[in-house]
Amino acid sequence: MKFSRSRGDRAVSAPATDGEGAPAGGAAAPTPGTGLRGHRLIWLVAGIAVLSLLAGIIVSRLVVSPAQAAADAKAPAAGLITVPVEKKVIANDVTLRGDVKYDDAVQVKVETADLGGPAVVTGQVPALGAELGQTSIALEVSGRPVIVLPGDLPAYRTLRVGVSGPDVAQLKAALTAVGINPGNGGSDIYDAATATAVDKLYANVGYSSPTSGDEAKDGVESASRGVRDAEEALTSARAELSASKGGATEVEKLTADNAVREAERNLAAAQAGTPDPAAEPGTPPQPGDVAGAQDALTLARAERAALDKPKDVAAQTAAVTNAQRQLDDAKKALGEARTETLTALPASEVLFLSGLPRRVDEVLVERGATVSGPVMAVSGATLVIEASAGSSDAELLAPGAKATFVLPDDSQGTATVTSVEARKGDAEGGESNADSKKGARFTVSLAPDALTPEQITLLQGSNVRLTIPVSSTAGEVLAVPVAALTAGPGGESRVEVLRGDAGAESTGKKKDRATDLVPVKTGLAAGGFVEIVSSDDPLEPGDKVVVGK
Fold this sequence. Notes:
Elements: E1 4-7, E2 10-13, H1 37-62, H2 66-73, E3 81-84, E4 86-88, E5 91-102, E6 106-108, E7 121-123, E8 131-132, E9 137-141, E10 144-150, H3 166-177, H4 192-205, H5 214-245, H6 250-272, H7 290-308, H8 314-341, E11 350-353, E12 358-363, E13 376-380, E14 383-390, H9 391-394, E15 402-406, E16 412-422, H10 424-427, H11 434-438, E17 441-448, H12 453-459, E18 463-472, E19 477-481, E20 485-487, E21 493-498, H13 504-507, E22 515-526, E23 529-535, E24 544-548
Helix pairs in contact: 5-8, 6-7
């Protein structure tokens, strides 16, 4: 059976089949899937059409006509740029960067010229961070201590009895400071009292005093013998002088008197004459040797008179004077010899440092090493912050000003300005050169307030940001940006206040927006804002002022 189905203007013929559904006339059956190939083609065509449509839409959006490009390039209509009047605190701060360190860092040297041998470090080497105070032992060199004392002048010579100078005056002041009486504190002479005070200093630090040596002891013994010999010579000379001044004894005087009387008798006998035993009786006596008797009497009387006259003791007196001079010289020599045995203060055993206590920042020697340069670096025990500021900032700062900073652990610290000083090179130009002064740099020193030991450890060697308030309003004030200020014809300050429709911008409409120029009196300016102290027309927070167009 054959039939046809009309689909539009096309006819589709069904193949003929036999009664059992097989193709008539023995035709072959169609290949499986041949009926679906037409549907795949339809879907492929539809996909290509959709992609073409999308590509057209995209290209139409990317392509801009010349008229549209010109319209897009046209500048928008000019408008006012406004900001509201605010109520706020205005503060003027100086911001600096500062290095945290210990103050007055110096390298320490020990004088070793008077040692007479190698200056070997034998002990007492300080640890980093150790503190050196009055009478501390900074180091031990060749078995002897280096004692720390307060002072600015370095030790440069050994101080002993008899020397004088500013270094002696410094030593006496240092001894007084540590509680030891140096004797006459107003004198710059190192005397026996000073030596005794130095003995006490060594006893306090636990070391024996420096010894004078065998040579000095031998000198004292020799001088002592000289004094004894001079004393004996003086005693002998004085005895001889005394004997010479005493005159004749009574025995000597009686003997001389007897001699005079005998001479007188002999003279009388000589004058009377002497009978001759061989002469006839009645013969007168013959005169004796009258002249001889007279001479004998004259001599006896002279000798007696000599006993009553004072003796010439010039020689004995000179001998006494010479003996006394020799004794004085011997005593002086003994005093000098004893002076050599009094305690001296060697330059190698004392270290004068100012600003005690001091902190040891670096140790440059070790035990067993020979000292040949600086032995350590020390600084003040006080932590300081040192910053650099230009002249404009420095003029706003003064000692006593407070600063804040952030510690490395993010906590906030405070510090106080202690000094504001021009750097040495900048200060030499003087104030006459104004341009130079403007470009000068200043060193600002600050002392941190109340830090814990842990915070000090964190801060040391760091660099912090310092904020120093230099002026501030007393609470909130009316404020506008500095850009809102303009100058009037008379130089007065003024602001342009918007009086038009505040909603014009939001609606996109171009409306005329009226503004008023209001003269104002300004106050503190900081951080881009300026205080409005008063205005001819009242201003309120939220009023719009023009900052640009």
